[in-house]
Amino acid sequence: MLYDLFNYLDKLDFPGAGMFHYISFRSAMALILSLILSTITGKRIIEMLQKQQIGETIRDLGLEGQMQKKGTPTMGGIIIIIAILVPVLLLARLSDIYIILMLITTVWLGTLGFIDDYIKVVRKNKDGLSGKLKIVAQVGLGLIVGLTLYLSPHAVMRENVSIHRENDKTEIVYTPEVKSTQTTIPFFKNNNLDYRNLAGFMPKHRTAVTWIIFVLVTIFIVTAVSNGANLTDGLDGLAAGSSAIIGVALAVLAYVSSHLEYAAYLNIMYIPGCEELAVFACAFIGACIGFLWYNAFPAQVFMGDTGSLTLGGIIAVFAIIIHKELLLPILCAVFLAESLSVMFQVSYFKYTKKKQGVGKRIFKMTPLHHHFQKAGNAGIDALIQRPFIPVPESKIVVRFWLIGIILAVLAIATLKMR
User: Helix axis angle, 131-151 relative to 97-121, nearest 10°?
Assistant: First the structure.
């Protein structure tokens, strides 16, 4: 909204109005505004949640300090959503198709998570929204994103064909703007994965089949990453801090993908219009960091599914839009490890119970972060007993953050490695 206002004022030669044309200025403003909003509104929202007695129900899993969290307000994801939406609505160019998709994603998954939390906390149904309904909603979002990128004439990209350097001048030759299902492959130079290559078995309907595959991949990524973030949200500050780190990497990737010379230098696709995503990413980063003011150990509020599903979905859709979804296994390796730990644990338990009559475990407890909170050789029949001494919660969170920083740097570095 402010973008259009200052764009009009700039035409009238209003002093300073031209600053809103710069992505760097609007991104910085979005970061600052989201930080302020999350910290200011956070206190009031926490007080409101406490007044309504919307507290977390804790199961006793024998973890140190766990029962002290009983009654801590949840549904704090509302703070994050407000701190994202307000700066984006004020500072981004709202006609941009990518911003529209990100706003839909935020509201869609925020609503889904809110309904789930409401059923759990207010209606006292510990199962919450059924898993099938969650999957249906996530599939629905994946369809919206995939079909929009397919049908919208504004969702295009250009691929650099050659770069000629002579003296101090550089000439970049690009293909015309086209709709494409290509995505960047990390580590490999001059190679992109094109989903079109997977549709060679139906040459007569190759274009249609290509986009069907793309939509299915989009659905899978949105579902997987949003659920991965949900599983990661188990320790104070873990999900919010990890998401902020990923947000920084995505902001960098969006900016270089929208800059003709940077995209050519890194030999990646140039995506016109995705520079607005830098504004969204900065609001996302500010919202996550601001939320840590109240969510860092010991937490005064939990984000609940309202926040965790939203954060994961935003990361997934963002990466798909900038054609960097193959970087997600590196960027979101923490989320991936949490999800895989649960999958392997359940599968191994069922397998051993069927074969030996007694179910055994790989980890002492899942998701993975809880494994480090349990003492080894304490009567739990698990293949991995280390560490034998429980690790304090705050130390686990910081170590996961450090791993996330290393992975974010690596993900960005893979573009130059190419």
Answer: 170
Give the side-chain half-sphere CA count within 13 A for 24.
Answer: 2
Listed residue (341, 315, 272, 312) closest to 411, CA to CA:
315
Q: Coil, strand, or helix at residue 183?
A: strand
Q: Token pair of 9, please?
A: 């004022």
For the chain, the maximum distance between any two Cα atoms, rounded to a whole number of angstroms, is: 79
SS3 assignment for 87-112: HHHHHCCCCCHHHHHHHHHHHHHHHH
Distance of CA 24 to the CA centre of its chain: 22
pLDDT in tens, 249-264: 999 999 999 988 788 7
pLDDT confidence of residue 308: 95
Kindly state the tokens that stand for 349.
């338990």
DSSP string, 141-181: HHHHHHHHHHH-TT--BB-EEEEEEETTEEEEEEPPPB---
pLDDT at 19: 75
Q: Distance between CA atoms of 109 and 312, rounded to whole angstroms?
A: 9
Residues 21, 104, 311: CA angle, nearest 5 degrees: 90
Residue 40 amino acid letter: I
Rounded to whole angstroms, the Cα distance separating 278 from 320 reads 15
Beta bridge partners of 194: 182
Phi, psi (degrees; rounded to nearest 5) at 160: -75, 135
Q: What is the mean pLDDT of the chain?
A: 88
Say how far apart CA 256 and CA 322 lie, in whole Å.
10
Query: Euclidean distance between the first and final Cα of the chain, in Å?
Result: 39
Question: Structure tokens of 227?
Answer: 């659920």
| pLDDT greater than 60 at residue 415 | yes
pLDDT exceeds 70 at position 47: yes
**Residue 323: which of 256, 265, 261, 239 has the closest Cα?**
256
Matching residue, tokens 């925020």: 110
Please give the full DSSP string across 364-402, using - where no structure is assigned. Answer: SSSSHHHHTTSPTTSS--BS----SSPPPHHHHHHHHHH
Task: Give the closest residue to 82 by CA, choosing from 30, 29, 49, 37.
Answer: 37
Structure tokens at 226: 């949003």
Q: In angstroms, what CA-CA distances link 257 with 57, 246, 276, 324?
A: 44, 16, 11, 10
Per residue in 197-221, pLDDT tens? 888 788 888 888 998 999 999 999 9
Q: What letter does residue 129 receive in the DSSP assignment?
A: S
Half-sphere exposure of residue 267, counting CA atoms within 13 Å on the CB side? 18
